Amino acid sequence: MIKTFSKLWMIKPLLMRLLRRALLLMVALQAAVVSTLIAIDYRRKRYRDQGGFPRTYPEPVRIGDDHVQIYTYGEHLYDAMLAAIRNAESYVMFETFIWKDDRVGQAFKQALQQAAERGVRVYVIYDVFANLVVPQRFFRFPASIYVLRFRLLPRPWRILDPRTYGRDHRKILVVDGTVGFVGGYNIGARYATEWRDTHVRIQGPSVWDLENAFIDFWNAHRDRALPELPDHGTRSWEARVLVHRNVPQTLIFPIRGMYLEAIDRASRRIYLTHAYFIPDRAILQALLAAAKRGADVRILLPETSNHVVADWLARGFYTTLLKGGVKLCLYQNAMVHAKTATIDGVWSTIGTANIDRLSLVGNYEINVEFYSEELARQMELIFENDSTNARELTLEEWCRRPLIAKFSELVLLPLRPLL
User: Fold this and answer.
1) Distance between CA atoms of residues 408 and 41, nearest Å
2) 359-391 pLDDT, tens digit each
3) What pTM, to 2 d.p., does this model score?
C-alpha cells in the first residue's frame, strides 16, 4: 500500500507537466488558428465590395398611443435622428456604443452642439473602450454638453468583480420625451450605406421607457461633475410595448429570459436575424424543440461578419442546428448587424443584444418587445426581403466542408464562453 502511494506521488509531477504542456499546446493552436483566420479575413475584406443589398421601407405602425417606425437603412435612420435633434426644444439624451469620426459622426456632433447652443440640455453617453481607435480629440465637447464617458474599468479597485466588465453596447436617442430611437445602428458613415441593420423609432408614451433606461444608467455611473437626472416615473402602461434592459452592475439579464419565453411559445414560425449567433445550451435547445414540434425556424446571419472569430465559433453550432431542422440563411455581400426576431406573426423584438454570452449575460443592452400583428407582419416582410440576399446552407453542403475547417472549429471550441 505504501509503495503504491509512493509511486502515485512520483507520477503526480509528471502528470502536471503533461497537463501544462497540453494546455500550452492548445493555446498555441488557438493563437495560430485565430491569427490565420484574421489574416485571411483581412485580405478578403480588402477586395470585397459591400452595400449592395435589398432595402425595405416599412410604413409607421400604431400600437395603442404609440407610433412605431422601423428603419432598415442607415442613411434614412440618421436623417430622422438628426431631424429630431435639430428640432429639440428642451433636452436630448444620446447614447451610443461606437461613434466614428467621419462625415456621419461629425454631423451628429455638430447637431448636438448646435442644440446646446440654443439652450437645449444635451446629455451624451459613449463607451470609451469601443472607441479606442477613434481620435480622442473627436470626443472633446463644449462645457454646455454633459458627457458621461463609460470607461473600461470605472472602478479599478474592483478589477476582480465581473460586474465591472460589461460594456455599454446600447444605442439610444431620446428627444424631449416625445420621440425615442433604439436598435443596432452605431454612428458612422460605413453603417449608413454598407451595413444592413435595424432600428426603431417610437413616438408616444412608451418613449418614457427609453428615457428611463438612459436616466438610470446615467445616475448609476455619473461622477460628481455631472448632474443627477430626475426620475419622475410614469402614469402610462402599454403592455404591448415593453423595454427590457440587461444591467451587469446588478446582475439583471432579462433579455435572455424574454427570448426563451417567446421561443417556448412558438408553434408556427421563428425568424431570427443576428449579427453574431453563439447561443447557450438553453436557447439552442429551445430552438431545436420548436423545430421538432413543427415550427419553421430560420436564422439569418452574415456568411462573413466583421468578427471572423465569432463567425467560426457560430459555425460550431451549424451541424446541430441543421440536423435539428433549423434553416440557416447566410447573408451575402454585406454585413447584417441587426438584432431582431419575430415569432408566430404576433411577437417581435428589436434591440441591441446579440444571441451570445457578451450580450445576454455580459454587456449593458436594451431590447424592445412588441405584441402587434401589424408590426410582426412588417418584420416578416423584412425577413423575407433580406432572405432574397441570402443563401440557405444545407446539411449536405456543410458536411462536405474541408477537414481543416472541422479541426479549426474544434480548436476554437473552448473560446465560446468568452463570446
Assistant:
1) 15
2) 999 999 999 999 999 999 999 999 999 999 999
3) 0.88
